[in-house]
Amino acid sequence: MRFLKAHGTGNDFVVLPDPDGALDLTPDLVRALCDRRFGIGADGILRAVRQDGSWFMDYRNSDGTVAEMCGNGARVFARFLVAEGLVAGPKLSFGTRDGVSEAVVEGAEIAIAMRRPRLLGRGSATLGSLTLTGESVDVGNPHLVCRVPDVSVIDLSAPPVFDPSSFPEGVNVEVVSADGRMRVYERGSGETLSCGTGACAVAAVLLEGSNGTVPIDVAGGRVTVTIESERCWLAGPAVLVAEGTVSVDQMLAARPL
């Protein structure tokens, strides 16, 4: 099976070209491909499928669950489509579970247009021994943005504990300091070096619901978020780093139970 490996500010993905949708992408196969020791290793899977005459980004978290949207994944997906000659740039569009995404490719940087973040009110989550309150934000997927003095001291080694009645679909939890530094625990993936929708959620909180442009520093680099009246743009680098083939049967057979 052919694959490509890519990342957007360190948020890394396995890209699977599957135009006919012939691949049986089971949760176990996703987990195996994303395993950093027994597979290829990634925060998630981007499967490229043709649907209704256009390309569709079928995104899966590394634990095998399906997610509505992935901002960095969408930027990587746009890079893949242009690099493979599947669409013409610099402007393009493709489908996601959160609707049609538009992208603009300008050299090393790719900007993706997403829905405007919606601030939903206060929420809380427990990270390690610390319970934090923050702003619940909808960016097509659920987020909780918590302001902290120092992001480096927050324990993101285990999934956050939260009230499931507040976040019935789970939640991505971002911690952000006043200087725009962000860390994130991604639902279904754990702590990642970057989260595109999380950066958009953080920008919405820092801008207090207003329009504007905010640079967000994540562990894997910097992204820039511009919030407009009707949508939100996420801009930053997206890199294809390798391609090859993987023997699925051998990989699954050798993976420990």
Automatic annotation (TrEMBL):
EC number: 5.1.1.7
NCBIfam families: DapF
Annotated active site: 70, 195
Gene name as annotated: dapF
Organism lineage string: Bacteria, Bacillati, Actinomycetota, Actinomycetes, Micromonosporales
GO MF entry, a single one: diaminopimelate epimerase activity
Major enzyme class: isomerase
Site (Could be important to modulate the pK values of the two catalytic cysteine residues): 143, 186
Name of the featured protein: Diaminopimelate epimerase
Superkingdom, natural source: Bacteria
Family according to the record: Belongs to the diaminopimelate epimerase family.
PANTHER family: DIAMINOPIMELATE EPIMERASE, DIAMINOPIMELATE EPIMERASE, CHLOROPLASTIC
Alphabetized PROSITE patterns for the sequence: DAP_EPIMERASE (PS01326)
